[in-house]
Amino acid sequence: MHAVQRLGVGYHFEAEIEEALEKVHDMGEDLFTNFDGRGTDLYHAALRFRLLRQQGFPVSLDGFRKLKNSEGRFKEWLSRDEQGLLSLYEAAHIAFHGEDILDETLNFATKNLKSILLTNKNISNAVQRQIDFALFVPAWKCVPRSLARHSLDFYSDQGALLQNQKLLTFAKLDFNMVQSIHKQELRELSEWWKSIDGATNFPYARDRLVECYFWILCIYFEPEYSVARVLNAKIYIVLTTLNDTCDNFGTYEEVQALVKAIERLDARALDELPDRMKNMYRLTLNVYDEIEEEAGKKGSTFIVEYAKEEYKKLARAYLKKNGWCTEGQVPTVEEYLIESGYVTGGMPIVCGSAFVGMRADIVTREDFEWANNESKMFRSGSAICRIQNDIFTYKFEEKRNHAPSSVQCCMKQYGISDKEAVEFLLNELSNSWKNIAREYCQKPTLLPTVFKDRVINYARSMNLFYDNRNGDRYTNSHLLKEHLTALFIDPVPL
After folding, report:
1. Number of domains forming the structure of the chain
2. Nearest Cα to 369, choosing from 454, 451, 264?
3. In terms of residue numbers, what domain contains 200?
């Protein structure tokens, strides 16, 4: 089951996975009942915890307390169990607020895994690769498609580690088949971008067609979402171009006129715009006319209404940022997030628009309303998207005339250094992931799983585009070359 999910073919067996885990949960066995200090027991106990929790089954934390001695410290031999530590590390990431034992377990496992990489000269290359990848991004926070490609390459090199070779072959064939669909979608998008002369019409904007498609692919890769994926890649291109138009190209007055026109989304507003804003508005109208036509075929016009409203909110938030920059204002962290950050992080528009091109019965209007107004998961995902972007781009943005980020807002509000502000915001990221875990891992669910998956996958995508090793890999897109090659160009060798 673990291998099925990690290799990227879990979407074929969702009902079977649910049924199998339900049987495990109904057995009512303490995950650590037979725990006697042997590494295989620790590995499997932590793995069962992770699989059950991420599927929404309630699981006791008592087993983790058995890992400590009478003095309250983790037992010494744990630090020598590489596979057990790795399994504990992965499990402890799916923590809720107030679960101190999981926080302590995560800190312990992280410290010792790093120590193993630095000091243990005898670990195999296979274990070293596993640890290094997990420390970079744990499975819970990793985009499914990237995790699948990494796992396929890993198990292909270390075939003996995966006993079911038929599963590995099936996963390879499935990956390559789906990759061919993604290539066709990219071809279609490339032809569209050329047909509207996008690179020429927006020379000031980041030309990121492949990267925009990749970002949408992070949210859903499955073949059944092909139409929605192409439409949303176009939307994401619009969002990137709008961002650069508002941040780097238009004056406050020009952006204000553009936002006023976007509020109408009416072709008649084109004549009222400054010439420099007309191409941006034409692109907006063309893409939203296309998604409206497609939604009409699916009977999901209410989703387009939602997507349009979120686009208008995004335009207003960009205008707010432009105004702060023009006037040299630095708001409080709360003002920044509420008036701009939650929206410009992209979660509301990206996750809402994700359902354009799908059947009307996938989600309801009530789902959207509840997510926007009540869901901690949705709001926390928005915070992750904005804050993680800010943390790894603020130094670059400081070099040009740019609106303040959450880092600068935090520095001013609390009178602290940028290093302290980053630490403060990293803690906010940790809290936000706990909110996501609590709402995602619950039964019965208040949001359909198809909606929750879009939210968590968009939050996960931030780890690919913004990280402490490479910074901003969206703007500096050459840093994504390895990922793009693995997902779109090179098939998995059979």
Report:
1. 2
2. 451
3. 173-489
Q: What confidence tens digit (pLDDT) does each residue in 415-455 have?
A: 999 999 999 999 999 999 999 999 999 888 888 899 999 99
Summary mean pLDDT of the chain: 90
> Which ranges of 158-251 would DSSP assign to H, the alpha helix?
165-195, 198-201, 209-219, 226-244
Alpha-carbon dihedral sign for residues 250, 256, 257, 262:
positive
Helix (H, G, I), strand (E, B) or coil at 172: helix
Q: Which CATH number is 312's domain given?
A: 1.10.600.10
Q: How far apart are CA 15 and CA 123, in angstroms?
A: 38
Contact between 102 and 138 under an 8 Å Cβ cutoff? The reply is no
Helix 376-398 and helix 406-414, axial crossing angle in degrees, nearest 10:
90
**Which secondary structure element, helix H or strand E, spans residue 144, and what is its range?**
helix 144-157
pLDDT digits (tens, 9 = 90+) for 371-420: 888 889 999 999 999 999 999 888 877 766 677 899 999 999 999 999 99
Angle between helices 252-264 and 301-327 (to 10 degrees): 160
Q: End-to-end distance of the chain based on CA atoms, in angstroms? A: 22
Residue 472: strand pairing partners: 466
Overall pTM > 0.85: yes
